[in-house]
Design goal:
The complex is a heterotrimer of chains A (318), B (287) and C (257). Chain B is mainly α and 287 residues long. Chain B is built from 11 helices and 2 strands, in the order ααααββααααααα. Classes of the chains: A mainly alpha (318), B mainly alpha (287), C alpha/beta (257). Chain A: It is a multi-pass membrane protein.
């Protein structure tokens, strides 16, 4: 039972990390990423392949950097195009990662995957405490990512992004600097997805391509939508409740006996889809609305940069 | 060998042409790239399977049934989801279409399970001609697609409905002033593009096993074809589909067959790097 | 000076429809949840006249004409065309009721040919009398160059030609009233002159024209009457001949006339 609870908490932590990352990309920078599963998978494989040789810390850094670099490339390629193009490129990216992992067996073990991934502090952990250590590790990781995201949202960097997020006119008027900021936010999000993948690999100690289906992407979107775009706290709650609902519905089988395992999983996955659509239509602000920050907070009087935005934004409507 | 691959590529491209055309037409009217195109393709295959295997109907009727089912599914999705979110911009529509895709895929999984299925077909001997093998499924695909494309071309270029569809895609508010009801045109467009995807689903089911994830195999090539043709350009989408199909098959000369999708993805990346308008025009750059 | 500050017309003005092509009473409109941009406009226009609406930037000219065309819903008030209340009609039904509209830019379907643009101008308008081959010939006689190159894409036309095509499309619906939103926008001075001449020809063909213009000089030259909008309200209505440009400067900046 304890180990089941640990599993649930770790899965919540992974979902929260992925959600925080997508919240940075989509919620803050307004750049949609449909290749979430690909970035998580890359992070997991990067750690699985390098950790035995360079240790867990360096492996995680490598995973984060690689994912950051790749997401930066993808967003740079499409940043000046319509939103649809980044979406398409990221969908493609997710699929390509899956295909590469399956087919480059010399590196990834193909469909068999990689096993025996060393956990952090494995050498120092007394027998029987493995779950406890990884639990603390996960909680620390999520806390750090949360604190970092919050700081980012409140920084000038975050303020500019939030101000321009929904207003392409302003984005165009401000030009390159804002585009660069958005690319950076996208890259940071990619890095956090990589770290989520790393946590996944460390916890399971065994990974294969079937663990990284596009459903991860759907969970992340569900978490961001449910939590309220832009709200990090809402996001943690959203990710938590989704994982709990998913876990709880595993037991539906006991209640509805005529349903078989495949049907049950189809029902649960379909539910996520219904949830995404329903939330978008009924509660676009999410369960926890993005905290309304006052005008003065966006553009303090002494702020040099984007003060004319507001006038521009309003001019655009007339 | 090269000729054989070229022929296979041509047929693959023809198969892609229908959903790519559907994607690009919907993009023209709704201004978003419908993520659910793969799942709808899967739905078409299963609808065809239901008609063909469960009800015992011949394949042409199964294809008509699939066209109807997917067409209605598209209209339903539009009514329940996309139209309600239209004002909220293309990212919201994209995310919603991902949700829709998940729902459709899992309806198929719920009804038919994960096991691979196939149509009830008599095995026919392939035709050989100058060392090239052409099998029955390929001829069916080519014939059906060519007829569908000709009909669609006539519809778009020479009928009032086609003019109305192009007018709404070009300039919705001017179209409204000219008496073209966007809503009606959108519904008809969804129905027709759904029919195209449904037929493509049945043709795809001739080519490979039917399972809940089969649509994923076509997702990237479909997007690549539509981008190659310039999103929103119907003729471009068809040409793009043929090029992608041929490029994918030809690539098997140098790459393992499982890497065919990487060819499509690379085409997307290269196009976005060097020629954002697609090969045939249509603006992609936002102001 | 004949100029008089705009007063709401007496209610009885709406009672006799024979004397006006377009009647607007108490019209209010705005965007989304914002305040009114059009703040209670009353106006009556006699048949076969040209009225030009001018005003400073942001005075609500464009919103006014969009509300007339039905692209922006009216929040209050009513609009009548030849005595018929059209306030509740969709843009398309307004065309069928005799009110045609030429938007400011993007006023033709750029990806369609000239012939297709002309066809589309009427094939979805139902129940409008006087639409047909006869009207087509009359309209093409006004704009002869359009008939010469039916297969040219409208997007490849010059600004002036595009404007002519847009006029022609609007006229094919045999309107009583033609609304023009800044027909001179983006055109060279020479083409502006030609465009304004075309507007006069349209009036001579028996159509009532209401246009919104930034180019005050060009608009004054052809208009019978001028209406000045400031901050969403009518601030002046006068015969075009009585208005000097110098007078307008004061009005634009809010002085009383």
């Amino acid at each position: 039972m304890i180990s089941y609870l640990v599993t649930v908490v770790i899965f919540v932590a992974i979902a929260a990390l992925v959600g925080l990352a997508l919240n940075l990309q989509w919620g803050l920078a307004g750049l949609v990423n449909f290749g979430v599963s690909g970035f998580v998978a890359l992070g997991a494989y990067a750690v699985a392949i390098t950790a035995p040789h360079v240790g867990w810390l360096a492996a995680m850094a490598f995973a984060a950097l690689m994912c950051a670099g790749l997401s930066m490339l993808l967003s740079l390629l499409t940043i000046r195009l319509e939103e649809n193009y980044l979406a398409i490129v990221t969908i493609g990216f997710g699929e390509i990662v899956r295909i590469l992992l399956l087919n480059e067996g010399w590196l990834t073990g193909g469909a068999l995957g990689i096993s025996g991934i060393p956990r952090p502090f494995a050498g120092m952990t007394p027998a029987g405490w493995g779950d406890g250590v990884i639990l603390v590790f996960a909680v620390v990781l999520v806390t750090a990512a949360f604190a970092f995201s919050e700081a980012l949202v409140r920084s000038p960097f975050g303020r500019v992004l939030r101000a321009v997020r929904d207003d392409p006119t302003v984005t165009a008027a401000l030009g390159k600097p804002v585009l660069a900021l958005r690319v950076r936010a996208f890259a940071v999000g990619g890095a956090i997805m990589g770290l989520a993948g790393a946590l996944h690999a460390f916890f399971l100690t065994y990974i294969d391509p079937s663990q990284f289906t596009p459903i991860i992407t759907a969970y992340a979107f569900m978490a961001v939508i449910a939590g309220g775009r832009g709200s990090n706290l809402g996001l943690i709650l959203g990710a938590g409740s989704i994982m709990l609902i998913l876990e709880a519905t595993r037991f539906l089988k006991d209640i509805i006996p005529w349903i078989d395992g495949v049907q049950l999983s189809a029902l649960r996955l379909g539910m996520i889809g219904v949830g995404i659509v329903l939330m978008l239509i009924l509660r676009p602000q999410g369960l926890v609305a993005e905290p309304k920050r006052r005008y003065g907070e966006f553009f303090p009087k002494d702020a040099a940069g984007p003060a004319p935005n507001r006038a521009l934004a309003e001019g655009g409507k007339a | 060998m090269v000729a054989q691959l070229f022929l296979n590529g041509l047929v693959t491209g023809l198969l892609l042409a229908l959903p790519a055309l559907a994607l690009t037409l919907i993009f023209g009217i709704m201004r978003f790239a419908n993520f659910a195109v793969g799942a709808l393709l899967t739905l078409g295959a299963y609808a065809g399977y239901l008609a063909n295997v469960t009800f015992g109907l011949p394949l042409p009727m199964a294809a008509a049934f699939a066209a109807l089912v997917v067409g209605l599914a598209c209209v339903l999705c539009d009514e329940l989801v996309f139209e309600r979110l239209r004002e909220r911009g293309s990212i919201t529509l994209l995310v919603a279409s991902m949700g829709v895709s998940l729902v459709i895929e899992n309806i198929c999984r719920f009804a038919f399970g994960n096991a691979a299925r196939s149509f009830d077909l008599a095995v026919a001997r392939p035709i050989r001609w100058n060392g090239i093998r052409i099998n029955y499924e390929q001829m069916t695909t080519a014939g059906v697609v060519v007829v569908a494309l000709i009909l669609f071309h006539l519809l778009l270029s020479a009928s009032p409905l086609g003019r109305a569809m192009r007018a709404v895609a070009d300039n919705p508010s001017l179209a409204a002033v000219r008496g073209v009801e966007r809503r009606t045109v959108a519904r008809i467009t969804w129905m027709l593009t759904g029919a195209l995807i449904g037929i493509a689903g049945v043709l795809a089911g001739l080519d490979r096993a039917i399972d809940p994830l089969m649509g994923w195999n076509y997702q990237i090539p479909i997007f690549a074809a539509a981008i190659l043709g310039g999103l929103g350009s119907p003729l471009g989408a068809v040409a793009g589909a043929l090029l992608i199909g041929i490029a994918e098959e030809m690539s098997t000369l140098v790459l393992p067959p499982s890497y065919r999708q990487i060819v499509s993805f690379s085409v997307i990346l290269l196009l976005l790097l060097f020629r954002t308008n697609g090969l045939f025009g249509a603006k992609a750059v936002r102001k | 000076m004949n100029a008089h500050a705009a007063a709401p017309p007496p209610a009885s003005a709406l009672d006799d429809p024979r004397d006006h092509a377009l009647a607007v009473a108490g019209l209010r409109a705005g965007y989304g949840r914002g305040g009114d941009i059009v703040c209670g406009i009353d106006m009556i226009q006699k048949p076969e006249t040209i009225v030009t609406v001018i005003g400073p930037n942001g005075s609500g000219k464009s919103s006014f004409i969009k509300t007339l065309a039905g692209l922006l819903p009216a929040r209050a008030g009513r609009i009548e065309v030849t005595g018929r209340d059209i306030t509740a009609l969709s843009p398309a039904r307004r065309v069928a009721a005799g009110l045609a509209y030429v938007p400011q830019e993007a006023n033709v379907f750029a990806s369609l040919t000239i012939a297709e643009n002309l066809k589309l101008a009427t094939e979805f308008i139902r129940g409008r009398a006087g639409v047909g081959p006869g009207q087509r010939e009359r309209v093409l006689a006004l704009f002869p160059e359009l008939g010469q190159r039916p297969k040219t894409l409208a997007g490849n036309l010059s600004g002036g030609q595009r404007q002519m095509l847009a006029f022609a499309c609007a006229l094919l619906a045999n309107p009583e009233v033609l609304l023009l939103d800044e027909p001179s926008a983006g055109l060279s001075p020479k083409i502006v002159g030609e465009t304004m001449e075309a507007v006069v020809r349209v009036r001579e063909a028996g159509v009532t024209v209401l246009l919104v213009e930034q180019n005050v000089a060009a608009a004054l030259a052809i208009a019978d009457e001028v209406v000045v909008l400031v901050a969403g309200r009518l601030s002046l209505r006068a015969k075009a001949g009585d208005v000097k440009q110098a007078d307008l400067a004061g009005l634009f900046f809010g002085k009383e006339a």
